[in-house]
Amino acid sequence: PADIKGKVVLITGASAGFGEAFAYRFAELGCRLVLVARRMERLQALADSLHAKFGAVGCKCHPVCLDVRDIPACEALPSRLPAEFAQVDILINNAGLALGLAGVQDNSMQNMQIMLETNVLAVMALTKAFLSSSMLPRNEGHIINISSTAGQEAYPGGSGYNASKFALSGYSTAARHDLVGKNIRVTVISPGAVQTEFSLVRFNGDAERAASVYKGYDNLLAQDVADNVVYAATRPSRVQIAEITVTSVHQSGAKYTARPY
Ligand code: NDP
Ligand code: 8X3
């Protein structure tokens, strides 16, 4: 694997779930981390813990309180970063969410708007911002977009979330075409179901309903997804991992698990 010690890795959605797991893995490799989310106290606690554990291998963290739905704030983010974090090498667009499982006839347009703004528009804004500020001027970089099996296969009740992740997939493929002459890689990671805060958010805090999504089969874990992200990020610079799909051994499609979903 390539040595990525000292590289600047920006992770959106670092306050929970996958993003937090990614932060640990890049921290142990000695990266400088920009940790982005809305819950600043969680980011600060994570940064403190990573400094304590991995400061000796060179890990440094810069937490940033940002609502990624605020597009002007995404556009301004590069100019807000201190010099030692400003040249982002690896942008991990991970912040995202699903809201509800309503059928198309019942979709809340407010929920649709929040999902599309968070899962798609924010990715476009941050990608554009860091391509312009950090990656294109140095002709070097890696954009890693966290999609989902829900971006490959639609399921009943998933229309808004499915649409957002399918859009992310199309966007990422187009981005790969647009950047083909550059030393800039675009990777899409599509995990199956993992018990994070994802279903709690989806079901508006209903812990029992959220837990039921993961009952009755062996679950994939956030660290398994982190393995794949780190794998893509540590290939030699000539190698572009375009797509990775990763699921539990007991999941065979977006909603097909070893027990009824
Ligand atoms: P979590 O709910 O555990 O974490 C989501 C993260 O996104 C949090 O850190 C949250 O931070 C952040 N976030 C959400 N909205 C915003 C916003 N407007 N601005 C800034 N940050 C935001 O979910 P996961 O870790 O599971 O999800 C991470 C990604 O993985 C998402 O894109 C999701 O769609 C995808 N995914 C999840 C799967 C799963 O089964 N868990 C499977 C496949 C893909 P905060 O609330 O502090 O702002
Ligand atoms: C999240 C996976 O299947 O719960 O992207 O929608 S699923």
Can you put this structure into words, describing what you see?
Helix 5 (109-138) packs parallel to helix 6 (159-178). The chain has 261 residues and is α/β, with parallel strands linked by helices. A hairpin with a 2-residue loop joins strand 8 and strand 9 (256-257). The chain has one domain (8-255): NAD(P)-binding Rossmann-like Domain (Rossmann fold). The protein is built from nine helices and nine strands. A seven-stranded parallel β-sheet has the order 3-2-1-4-5-6-7, sandwiched between helices. The protein has a two-stranded antiparallel ribbon with strand order 8-9. The longest helix has 30 residues, at 109-138. The mean pLDDT is 97. The site of NADPH dihydro-nicotinamide-adenine-dinucleotide phosphate has 29 residues, from helix 1 and helix 7.
